[in-house]
């Protein structure tokens, strides 16, 4: 599993009911079912991933986060996860609202566009930056709404979503040491991870 997924596992209580939106290859669902004894299922836009995960015996359906979450029942899950997908949806604000309607908790991870290396690349090269997290050219990436940690915190404040926990991490497995100051973590964290409640 990716680092952000391992951190997500630590936020989920065993035997919980979990929906993973944009579940990709299903590795998070598989781990939660096998090791956390969760009732975990997924929704994925890419049909090739859906086919592979279903072939592994995982409960995944094809769907679009922008349109299909409205069909899920209110309070149907303990946790709703959106890992490295927020920046790729058309309507991030509405997706977050649906996540917190469907589940008691929402866990969101995304590449932090406020990281210092991205700022520096933009300043010095004048081009859209690339890192291990942002590993594609701007014209190849599915990302349509890149944001920073500070942007996300502002959205949560405006929408009234309560941030229960947050962290900034990098690809090497280190957590950014600025756990009390989002603005510093925004500068030094490659990825952001948030646990929200209503």
Automatic annotation (TrEMBL):
<dbReference type="Pfam" id="PF07021">
    <property type="entry name" value="MetW"/>
</dbReference>
<protein>
    <submittedName>
        <fullName>Methionine biosynthesis MetW</fullName>
    </submittedName>
</protein>
<dbReference type="InterPro" id="IPR029063">
    <property type="entry name" value="SAM-dependent_MTases_sf"/>
</dbReference>
<dbReference type="InterPro" id="IPR010743">
    <property type="entry name" value="Methionine_synth_MetW"/>
</dbReference>
């Amino acid at each position: 599993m990716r680092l952000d997924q391992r951190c997500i596992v630590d936020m989920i209580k065993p035997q919980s009911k979990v929906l993973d939106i944009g579940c990709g290859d299903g590795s998070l669902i598989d781990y939660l079912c096998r090791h956390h004894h969760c009732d975990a299922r997924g929704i994925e836009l890419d049909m090739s991933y859906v086919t592979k995960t279903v072939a592994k015996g995982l409960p995944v359906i094809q769907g679009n986060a922008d349109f299909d979450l409205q069909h899920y029942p209110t309070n149907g899950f303990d946790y709703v996860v959106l890992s490295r997908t927020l920046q790729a949806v058309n309507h991030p604000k509405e997706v977050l609202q649906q996540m917190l309607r469907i589940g008691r908790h929402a866990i969101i991870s995304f590449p932090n566009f406020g990281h210092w290396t991205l700022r520096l690349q933009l300043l010095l090269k004048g081009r859209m930056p690339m890192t291990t997290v942002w590993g594609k050219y701007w014209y190849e990436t599915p990302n349509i709404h890149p944001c920073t940690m500070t942007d996300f915190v502002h959205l949560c404040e405006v929408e009234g979503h309560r941030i229960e926990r947050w962290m900034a991490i990098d690809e090497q497995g280190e957590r950014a040491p600025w756990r009390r100051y989002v603005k510093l973590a925004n500068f030094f964290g490659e990825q952001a991870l948030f646990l929200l409640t209503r």
